[in-house]
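Worked problem 6 (solution included).
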Amino acid sequence: MKLIYPAIALDHSNPVTNENQIGNYLIQSFNECDIKTEIVFYKNDFVKFLFVFKKLFYKLIKKQNYLISREPLYLKFLNRRINRNINQSDADFIFAFGTNPVAYLETTKPVFILADSTFNNLLNRYDEYNNLPLKFIEESHELEKIAFEKAKLIFFSSRFAIDDAIRFYGVNPNKLVQVPLGANIDNFPNENEMNLIIQNRLNDSLHLLMIGKQWHRKGLDIGIEIFERISKRIKNSFLTIIGSKPPNNILNPNINVIENINKSKNNELEKLEQILKKSHILLFPSRAEAFGHVISEANAYGIPAIANNLGGIPSAIDEGLNGYLFDLNKTDGIELAANRIIELYNNKEMYKELSLNSYRLYSSKLNWNTIVKTIILNIEKYIKY
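Solution. The predicted structure is:
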C-alpha cells in the first residue's frame, strides 16, 4: 500500500518544515512498516503574510487571538494547490495529522486522520485558543465537521477527544479508534541499559524533571510548588525544567532551567539524554492537555510520571504502571503528589518496579512503530472491506 501525506500544516505535524516532530516520526514509521509514502507539500509565504495583517488587526484593534493555521481562506488556497498532486498520485489513501490539511480537499481517495484533540477540546483551554472571534470559532467548528465527515477513520490519542467528537460533533463512534502518541526520540536504552540506569538512580540524589514550552498551561509553577514541598523533606533533591522561560527569577539553586534544547544538534541531544538517564520522575502538572506525549518520551527512559488528572492525560498514564494521577489544581492534590514522590524515592523496590514497567509500557505500546502498525491494521481492514 501507499499513502500520500498532505504537508501544509503550520505546526509540528509537518515533516517538511520541522525536524524530530510528530510528522517526521509518522512518515518514518510508515516506511519501516513497508508502507510507501509520498509527501505533497506547498508553501506560499506571501499568501500567509497577507493573513498576518488580519492577525494584527485582531490583536491590536479587537484585542483578540486569531490563528492563521485555521483560517479557512488560507487552507482552501493551500488545498487547491495540492489537490491535483493528490488526485494524480497512485497512493491508495490520504493520511494526515489533524483536520486542517484535509478539510477542503476535493478527492475520491479515502481519507484517514490522526489527531490528539478536537478544536472544541482546545477552545478556551489552550492559551492561543482563548478569546477568539465568534465568527472564527464558528468557522473552526465547521472545519472540524467537514473533515470528520470526510474521514473514513479518525485515530484519536485520548478518550477525552473521542468523547468530544461523539458528543459535540456527532461523529459516528464506529469511525473512531483510540491510539496513543509516541515518543519523538531516536535513541532509547535497551533493557540491559535500562537496568543499569535504574540502578544508578537508586543510589543517586532525587532528580525531578519538567518539560514544556508554555509556563502557565504546562503548570510549571505547580511543579515548583510540589518540588519545594519535597525539598523540605529530602534536602539533596533537584529539579530540571526544560523548554520554558520562567516569568520570574527562580532563587532556589537546586532548580535548573534550560530554556531550549535542540535535538537536531548532537551535543544538545546528548545533554538531553544525560538528563533523562538521571531523572527519577517526570512532573506533568498541566492545566490543559490533549494527551502529553512527553510522557511517552519519559517512559522510553523508564521515567514514570506524576501528572494532573485532566484532559487527555489519563489516556497516557496507566495508573500505578507508568505513573500516578492527582488533582494538582488543589492543595491536597499537590501534597498527595509530593508524598507519593517521597514514598517512591525512599522505597527502592517500589520505584524500580514502576520504572521498569514504564519502560516496558513504552516498548510495547507508546512507541511510534507499534502505534503505526495499529493504524495500518485498521486502515487495511477498512480498505479490504
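Discussion: The chain has a mean pLDDT of 95.
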